[in-house]
Amino acid sequence: MDERIRKLAFMGLFSGLLVIATVVLRFPVPTFNLYFNLGEAVIYLTALLYGPGPGALIGGIGSALSDIIGGYPVWAPITFIIKGLEGYVVGALGKKNKYLAIVAGAIIMMAGYALAAGILYGIGAVPVELAGDFVQVSAGGVISLFLYNRLKNITFNDEDRF
């Protein structure tokens, strides 16, 4: 199979997994129009396996699409930027230090959404957003590292990073 087609197919697969992990595995926060989900695990896993480009594309596009499908369209442009940057940073730093990469990505995500929640809903939404985001990035980090350690030697290698 042509290498470009194979990589495009994997990007489509991970984008679909991200939408499922975000829309289906979603937990609403009752006091504000917010939710947390397991999409972070897919963003981190994609970025660690494939690098910054796919991490940014899948993180940004897949997550923004999830907001639209899931009924949160006002968040889609914000999500595209935050999750795209998060995926890029995790992919860029992940080859040297996966733990640091995930922490850096988590900081970007939490800071970005705290700022956005504060602007959209007021300062009272910020602690709620941060609490949900902390759970989300923590679960996503643990799940992605678990899956990465099982998949890295089976299916993927450094030549697959693009």
UniProtKB/TrEMBL annotation:
GO cellular component, one term: membrane
Chain segments annotated as transmembrane: 42-65, 99-124, 130-148
Top-level taxon in the UniProt lineage: Bacteria
Signal peptide: none
Keyword Transmembrane helix: yes
Keywords: Membrane, Transmembrane, Transmembrane helix
Protein's recorded name: Uncharacterized membrane protein
Organism: Tepidanaerobacter syntrophicus
Upper classification of the organism: Bacteria, Bacillati, Bacillota, Clostridia, Thermosediminibacterales
